[in-house]
Amino acid sequence: MADGNDAGLDFYKAVVITDSQRYLEPNAIQIRQHEFEVLQQHDFDIKQNFVRFLTKYCKQMKRIQNNPSIPIPAWCRYSALQYFHKELGI
């Protein structure tokens, strides 16, 4: 997380983790204390914005599946979610 007005989270790099026991080691995850505190302070907004992004992505990709002549927008084309359509039910 960068300092300054241009700081933010990049939802385009979000991935689906279906088995946290297998892929996440709690002791291996490290984050700076001040970044952790900022994330905690904005927990509700982060979750709400991510759900909005995910919903918009799924809706757009389902729309494209139903009408393949619709071009895939760049924000969908470059999202890591493109590799998780099965898990997302798309």
Mean of residue pLDDT? 90
Our measurement of the CA-to-CA distance between the termini, rounded to an integer number of angstroms, reads: 31 Å
Helix fraction by DSSP (H/I, runs of at least 4): 40-55%
Unreliable stretches: none
Sheet-strand content, in percent, reads under 5%
Give the helix/strand class: mainly alpha
The number of domains:
1
Notes on the protein architecture:
- The chain is an all-alpha fold and 90 residues long.
- It has one domain (11-88).
- The protein is 50% helix and 0% strand.
Give descriptors for this structure.
mainly alpha, 90 residues
Brief write-up:
This protein is an all-alpha fold and 90 residues long.
Set out the fold topology.
Blueprint: H1 20-23, H2 33-41, H3 43-66, H4 74-77, H5 85-88
